[in-house]
Predict the 3D structure of the following.
Amino acid sequence: MKFARTIRFDNSDDNVFPQAAQPGEWAISGAFAFADLPPDALIGKERQAFANGFLGLSSFGRSTFVVAATITPEQLEAAESVLARHLLSEYGAPNLAAALEAAREETAFISDLCAEVRPGVIFAVSRSVNEAGEIEESFRKIDQPQSAPLVPTQIWGIESDDG
């Protein structure tokens, strides 16, 4: 089974999100965190988290990119449990059973997103609010051909002035 895991190329997430996820966290879309917020209430780093951030399941910080990775059933169960407790404590789920059901829906969504790609494919998310006030998400895949090895290429040279 595949699932999303946070990845970083630089430290920009530390600068654009209220809290950045750490590299290697299991992650979900996390759009539910914005479900009850009017779009005009989101400004600055919160707006960026809404527009482009996946939710890490260890720190509950945001990540611009996730990568498809293999997850064991035990790791998935642990991620669902952590998310359920978070939904209970931070989002007012009525009880642990309801929170676990919601957590499983969230993890199933991201697992389905990653299911048809090979491990290593990177995803980015873009969110907006439509005219009906509903959150819309689109996901972009960034895939490198497996058969194309990285080959160092000289892009300039130094020549002396006298020859």
Strands lie at 2-7, 26-28, 54-56, 62-63, 65-70, 122-129, 135-142.
